[in-house]
Design brief:
The chain is an all-alpha fold. Helix content is 71%, strand content 0%.
């Protein structure tokens, strides 16, 4: 029978010509897989760009007013009753309550200053648009004076301000003055802002490609975009607090929707991925590329909204170039 047979591995010899490396095997195609649509970024745009109705604004305003009133009365009754029962504990609670209200006052003051600075940048942006349209040298000089006041005191702008001040007197038309400001003042800030946009696009694309959770995609995209918009605003001089960051995010998303730049364009994806590149990648990688591209579009919109000077002709950064720099080497060649 089989008592004398030796059990062991069976070695099958293959011809060298037919030997194939696993690396040379084509990837398994995803059957009926939908095309990448950037669902995470589309969700972020829908949440942040949606304008609340007047009824919802009244609802939240009244709810917060009622909660504030109830908490104030409850705190007053608590401190007053505690003083009656035990004066030492009562006055200690009163001191803590006063310290808490003082901190709230500081937070409210910082938010007010942030809103005021944002309005200052918005007014400067509008004045620069008017000066460009009218091609008026006096209006342009007034804009430059306000721009220099905005950036005075910043160490990173000292060299550019000195260069601009030296050459400002040689300019006698509005277009040349704006070109000088673009070169000496705006160019370094544009480079720093685009680095923030590239970093945000890279982060969103990476998380989308690696983490297989839809909620994680949306949460990462929302936080990364809010942080990117806040950093871009800070670079251009418009510091924003918590409420200011949300207001600024809504302004950027509204601008993005108004300009019609929320759809995924075949021309951008084709130039980015090299034609059929996305078909060779997994669907998660494709979603990562699309979400990164849409994040770059949000970043360009943030540059347009937060920049104190509007972009001149041919000066607006291209989304495709930003995405290429952000995602080069991330998903391979």
């Amino acid at each position: 029978m089989t008592g004398n047979r030796k059990l062991g591995p069976v070695l099958i010899e293959l011809d060298e010509a037919s030997a194939t490396s696993p690396a040379d095997v084509p990837p398994v195609p995803e059957v009926n897989a939908p095309e990448p649509t950037g669902a995470a970024m589309q969700g972020v745009l829908a949440v942040a760009g949606r304008k609340p109705s007047r009824l919802m604004r009244w609802f939240w305003s009244l709810l917060l007013s009622i909660l504030g009133f109830v908490l104030s009365v409850a705190a007053y009754d608590f401190v007053n009753g505690l003083i009656t029962r035990n004066p030492y504990l009562g006055y200690a609670a009163l001191a803590l309550t006063g310290a808490f209200l003082f901190v709230l006052l500081i937070i409210a003051l910082r938010e007010w200053i942030a809103f005021a600075r944002m309005r200052r940048v918005d007014a400067l942006h509008h004045a620069a648009e008017q000066a460009r349209t009218h091609n008026d040298l006096d209006e342009a000089r007034d804009v430059m004076s306000r721009l220099k006041r905005l950036y005075q005191g910043r160490d990173d702008m000292r060299w550019g301000l000195d260069r601009f001040h030296e050459r400002e007197g040689e300019v006698f038309d509005a277009d040349t003055l704006f070109s000088l400001a673009e070169t000496e003042l705006m160019a370094p800030l544009d480079q720093a802002a685009m680095k923030e946009v590239e970093a945000a696009a890279r982060q969103v694309a990476t998380v989308t490609a690696i983490v297989p959770l839809a909620f994680a995609d949306v949460a990462t995209a929302l936080t990364a975009n809010i942080r990117m918009i806040r950093r871009v605003a800070e670079i251009y001089g418009g510091r924003s607090g918590t409420l200011g960051s949300w207001r600024l995010t809504r302004a950027v998303m509204t601008h993005l929707v108004a300009t019609g730049a929320v759809a995924v364009g075949d021309d951008m994806i084709g130039s980015l991925a090299g034609g059929g590149m996305l078909s060779k990648l997994s669907r998660r990688f494709g979603e990562g590329v699309v979400n990164g591209a849409l994040t770059a579009r949000v970043g360009v919109a943030a540059l347009e909204v937060c920049r104190p000077l509007p972009f001149g002709k041919g000066k607006r950064p291209g989304v495709t170039g930003i995405v290429k720099r952000a995602l080069t080497g991330l998903f391979g060649k």
